[in-house]
Amino acid sequence: MENDSAIAALAALAHPTRLDAFRLLIRHEPEGLPTGALVEASGLGQSTFSTHLAVMARVGLVTAEKRGRQQIQRANVSTLVALMTFLAKDCCGGRSELCEPLLAELTCC
């Protein structure tokens, strides 16, 4: 990931509605959620939420797939991994013991 891509992804997540929606989508991977469920969870109107969804889609954080009559939104986990790797790539000047708490937090149960 390049600086510009990282900045765009971080900017997209730097809004409470988008951050909450993205975290909700991460919790529902790999099946995703219908757009309507995300709108309902946000408490916003459809058009307002669609604007937030478009911001996340534009930077590759969210993808949509059509299932029947529904649009299913999914978190793009590979973009999340790339962003987190970009942020921690040069972690602690190569002193791995300083990054161990971060790695421990990220380790799935």
What can you see in these coordinates?
With 109 residues, the chain is an alpha+beta fold. Helices cover 61% and strands 13% of the residues. The protein has 6 helices and 3 strands, in the order ααβααββαα. It has helices at residues 3-13, 16-27, 35-42, 46-58, 77-88, 96-106; strands at residues 33-34, 62-67, 70-75. It has a 3-stranded antiparallel sheet with strand order 1-3-2. Strand 2 (62-67) and strand 3 (70-75) form a beta hairpin. Helix 2 (16-27) crosses helix 4. The longest helix is centred in the middle third of the chain and has 13 residues, at 46-58. The radius of gyration is 16 Å and the shape is elongated. The chain starts with a helix and ends with a helix. 17% of the residues are buried.
Low-pLDDT runs of 5+ residues are none
- If strands are numbered along the chain, what order do they take across the biggest sheet? 1-3-2
Number of helices: 6
Terminal residue distance: 27 Å
What proportion of the residues is helical, as a percent range?
55-70%
Strand count = 3
Task: Provide the structure class.
Answer: alpha+beta
- Spatial shape: elongated
Order of helices and strands: HHEHHEEHH
Instruction: Please tell me how large the radius of gyration is.
Output: 16 Å
Strand content: 5-15%
